[in-house]
């Protein structure tokens, strides 16, 4: 019986974790639950799974953070969205817990600082993102397996093929119509700008100790190939499947064993495409900006993420144009200095300052 502390239980990923527990009640047990607010959905979860610990961050942040250190937990599944997820991840690895990581900001914002703390405490990190789960599988569930290149796939988002002029007038409703995946609003917009893919490159740099020269991204419109690994002898291994998060979510809990899911299986009796299209970086200026920040490292990716969160929300709220997301983030980064990461408190200050800068820029753009 694997005991799970679930952070972010009412979000899309968290709900799917609980579905995995329902599917295999003799394999998994929920011992801690955390959500942002005490909603009816959260209280129904508490009643159903009867965890030994539960808390809502909005009501008692310290109690919520303690759930990531739950003594009864064999694994902490961090599905919290945004920068706040980093603090849960730090608590978990400092408590020497195995961490199933679905929170991008842990590695994007925490970077080498977080990985060093995890290593010092002997905490295992299991990737949950479909792309990093695919790489993990291709590496034989061993993040230290040698490779020549990691190739991360992207759908191209809702506006692949649009001109810059066309992008100026696209609406939030259009942007949220992802061609293959069903995801939350923030990540769907980041998919359209390709910021999400840049984040995944930064994450892969940390997760697999990969220099940026060994990391690449390619567009695979059908989202059937989730990512690939090229080896020294020229062999390329790919992980395929329908665009469904059930498999990587459950696999993070069961690997190397595989168990049944409700995910749709690929049918080789039906025609489907494995087309690959080179990523034209000129079409996705945020991608290049983010990769440059990743290469610089330190506190810059944290500021980048904060600016992007504010800009995406402003676009979704109808305050700025889609193309102004890049304008906002680029202006924030042009006035942001790089420092080595020394503490979570420092990162929280960087995050707060970048958000403030972004809000000032958005105010001017929206006038």
Describe this structure in words.
With 367 residues, the protein is α/β, with parallel strands linked by helices. 46% of the residues lie in helices and 14% in strands. The chain is built from 15 helices and eleven strands. The protein has helices at residues 12-23, 40-49, 61-67, 84-94, 104-120, 130-138, 164-167, 172-175, 185-193, 195-207, 246-254, 285-296, 300-316, 324-334, 344-366, and strands at residues 2-7, 28-35, 53-56, 75-78, 98-101, 125-127, 149-154, 215-219, 225-230, 236-240, 277-278. The strands form two sheets. It has a six-stranded parallel β-sheet, sandwiched between helices. Strands 10-9-7-8-11 form a five-stranded mixed β-sheet, with helices on one face. Helix 1 links the parallel strand 1 and strand 2. Helix 5 runs parallel beside helix 10 and helix 13 (300-316) runs antiparallel to helix 14. The longest helix is centred in the last third of the chain and has 23 residues, at 344-366. The chain starts with a strand and ends with a helix. 46% of the residues are buried. The model has no long low-confidence stretch (mean pLDDT 95).
């Amino acid at each position: 019986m694997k005991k799970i502390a679930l952070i972010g239980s009412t979000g899309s990923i968290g709900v799917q974790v609980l579905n995995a527990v329902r599917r295999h009640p003799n394999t998994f047990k929920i011992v801690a639950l955390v959500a942002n607010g005490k909603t009816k959905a959260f209280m129904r979860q508490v009643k159903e799974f009867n965890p030994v610990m539960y808390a809502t961050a909005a009501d008692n942040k310290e109690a919520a953070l303690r759930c990531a250190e739950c003594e009864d937990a064999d694994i902490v599944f961090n599905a919290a969205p945004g920068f706040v997820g980093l603090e849960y991840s730090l608590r978990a690895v400092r408590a020497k817990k195995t961490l199933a990581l679905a929170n991008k900001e842990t590695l994007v914002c925490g970077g080498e600082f977080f990985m060093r703390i995890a290593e010092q405490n002997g905490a295992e990190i299991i990737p949950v993102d479909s792309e990093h789960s695919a790489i993990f599988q291709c590496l034989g569930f061993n993040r230290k397996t040698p490779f020549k290149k990691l190739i991360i796939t992207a759908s191209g988002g809702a506006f692949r093929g649009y001109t810059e002029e066309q992008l100026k007038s696209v609406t939030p409703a259009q942007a949220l119509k992802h061609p293959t995946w069903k995801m939350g609003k923030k990540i769907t917009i980041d998919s359209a700008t390709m910021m999400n893919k840049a984040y995944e490159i930064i994450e892969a740099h940390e997760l697999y100790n990969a220099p940026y020269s060994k990391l690449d991204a390619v567009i695979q419109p059908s989202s059937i190939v989730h990512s690939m690994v090229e080896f020294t002898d020229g062999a390329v291994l790919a992980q395929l499947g329908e665009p469904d998060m059930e498999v990587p979510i459950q696999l993070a809990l069961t690997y190397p064993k595989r168990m049944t899911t409700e995910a749709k299986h690929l049918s080789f009796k039906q025609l489907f495409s494995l087309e690959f299209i080179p990523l034209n970086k000129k079409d996705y200026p945020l991608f290049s900006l983010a990769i440059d920040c990743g290469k610089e490292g330190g506190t810059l990716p944290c500021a980048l993420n904060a600016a992007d969160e504010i800009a995406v929300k402003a676009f979704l709220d109808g305050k700025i144009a889609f193309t102004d997301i890049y304008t906002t983030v680029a202006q924030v980064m042009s006035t942001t200095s790089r420092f080595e990461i020394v503490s979570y408190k420092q990162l929280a200050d960087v995050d707060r300052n970048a958000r403030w800068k972004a809000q000032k820029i958005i105010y001017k753009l929206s006038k």
